Fold this sequence. Notes:
The chain has helices at residues 5-14, 36-54, 127-142, 151-165, 173-185, 187-205, 208-228, 233-253, 256-265, 270-277, and strands spanning 25-29, 69-81, 84-95, 101-110. The model is unreliable at 4-17 (pLDDT under 50). The chain folds into two domains: 5-185, no CATH class; 199-277, no CATH class. It is α+β, with helices and mostly antiparallel strands.
Amino acid sequence: MKKTWFIALFVLIFAVQATPQFTNVTVEISTDRMPEKERGDLKTLEQLIPAYFKNYTWIENSYGIDIPLKISMFPQSVNMTGAERIFTAQIFISNEVADNRFYEKSFKFVYNTNDPIGHIEMAHSLLSVLDFYGWMMIAAELDTYDPLGGNSAYEKARDVATRAQVSDKAWGWKDRLTDFDELLRVRNYRLSKYAYWMIVDLIDQGKMDEISPAIDRFLNNLTAMFEENARERYTHVFLDAHARDLIRILKDFGTAEQIDRLMALDPDNKDTYQKVLNEK
Length: 280
């Protein structure tokens, strides 16, 4: 059960607003390509990053959201520029089910031995990126509780990106802002996510008469999204992550027409859908 109304009400009544937004954070930094000294320092960084997310109140957490977070980093090179040690790495950030994920092929950041890892207001080549994706993850989660509910958190991400883009180490921020703007333009993707989780909540609450209309709303949002862009990537990432659960829902609570609509909208997952439909 993800977020039924009575849990939200309980949380609001008892004001558990200090609940952390990230309690399970896994960080893996591959050091195979690094010199020995850098290997040790990067392993220290690997141990410090989870606390950066966990020991900080990002929002007043009225919904009690808890986002399992996974960060994988693959440093490819390291160079010294004056007193600064600059790493270039691939980085992958996702939530537990990977329906919200981000990948960068060339992430550049400065990290020197014993550099502090804590939240600061000024732009920072590493910490600003962690902040940006932290807010993106929170925004995406809040979108599943209210229609476009992540707007305020997305604005926090924009603020971080805007400051970092005009800093002396603006590496990668033009591309991040481009991706950010693209995501905010796909309004029907965000509404589709909300509609999906509303279906899940209605099933949890046993409100059987409301499930089929909710499925229609989900499919309508999906249709509107794909009429704008049939290959919109965020929507396809979401569908790929939830394909099996989604078709099980339609198999148990939907209609043949709704199943046909889904398969027509998402032919990429047709084999998965058909396999579940054929299960006894």
